[in-house]
Structure formats: structure tokens, C-alpha cells
Amino acid sequence: MQNLFECKVKYEKIDEQSGKQKKVSETYLIDAVSFTEAESRIYKEMEMMIRGEFVVTNIRKANYTEIFDNEDGDRWFKSKISFASVDENSGKEKKVSNQLLVMANDVKDAFDKIHEGMNGMTVDFDINAISESPILDFFPYFKEEGVNEEIPSHLKPLEKEESNEEEVETSFES
Predict the structure, then answer these.
(1) Along the 174 residues of the chain, how does pLDDT read in single tens digits?
(2) What SS3 string covers 149-165?
(3) Cα-flanking dihedrals φ and ψ of residue 98, to 5°?
């Protein structure tokens, strides 16, 4: 399960139409283990994206159960879906709601992407709402390029350390 955090960042940027500087507040979604890590990661990401000063004004836990990323989309849409679930203790049917985040071009595209993403589920669901989200970008926990990073030369893999310890132990036994 992902721990998702919405981070608001405030900074000044040049307005494309008027050419003047204006203050903006933008929201980004970070997958992190804790609030502290979310704050650290948003600062690192923003340092690469923003020239000049910025401040993280708010970090809050987000409750999205599923994220459907789509390279063709240009905006994030928040959706509320519901489905029926049976309570094991009472045997009664109850309605369960979940929040989804979908990258799409418009509401109809988001609707289609939700159906594509939920395809194969054995439970019927209803889409109760779809609205444009203020989120501009999502930074997942594991990045493709970060998974196979080079190990710095001053560090040794753990297996080599353990095999060296065994060699040292056996050399003292002789």
C-alpha cells in the first residue's frame, strides 16, 4: 500500500501572458514513507524544477487507493467510485467508496481510463464523481532510473563483507 502525501509549494513565477512575476501555489503528490520523507523529497524535486526561492506550505496525507497514470493525459482527475461489499461479521451488504487519481485529457477520457484500469475486477462498481484535481505531478517512490544506481567505490556490497568476515575467522583458526 502506498503512503501518498499532497504537498503544496508556493513560489514566484513569470506569467506567460503578462510577463510579470506572480506568486503561485501548486500541489504535487509524493509517495513516501513519512511526512519527513515527503518533505525531503518535495524539496529535492522542486530544486530541480524551480529557479529561485520556494516554500512548502502544506503537507497532508492523501487517501487515493489507486493511481492510473497515463502518458497521453495532461491533467490529473480525482474520482470517487463505490462498490458493494459483504460484511463478514454481520453478513450484510455495505457500500464501500474509494478515491482514485487518473491522468487524462478530460472528464470523458478519465471515465474511460477508470474503466480500462478496473477491467478484470470481479466486482461491479459505480463511478460517483470525477473532477479535475489541483495536483500537477506525481512522484512515485521508486523511479525506474534510480533502481539500478551505481554503488559508490567506497562502499562494498553486503555479500562481500560477509565473505571477508568468514575468511578472517578461518584464518585465525589455523
Answers:
(1) 679 999 999 999 888 888 888 999 999 999 999 999 999 999 999 999 988 899 999 999 999 999 999 888 999 999 999 988 877 888 788 888 999 999 999 999 999 999 998 887 777 889 999 999 999 999 998 654 444 455 566 666 565 555 555 554 544 554
(2) CCCCCCCCCHHHHHHHH
(3) -135, 150
CA–CA distances in Å: residue 88 to residues 75, 91, 174: 39, 5, 64
In one letter, which amino acid is 106? D
Query: Can you say whether residue 113 is alpha, beta or left, with left for phi > 0 and alpha for psi between -120 and 50 degrees?
Result: alpha
**Cα separation of 97 and 78, whole Å?**
13
> CA separation (Å) from 143 to 66, 78, 140, 149, 155?
18, 23, 7, 11, 22
Beta pairing partners, 128:
none
pTM listed for this prediction: 0.74
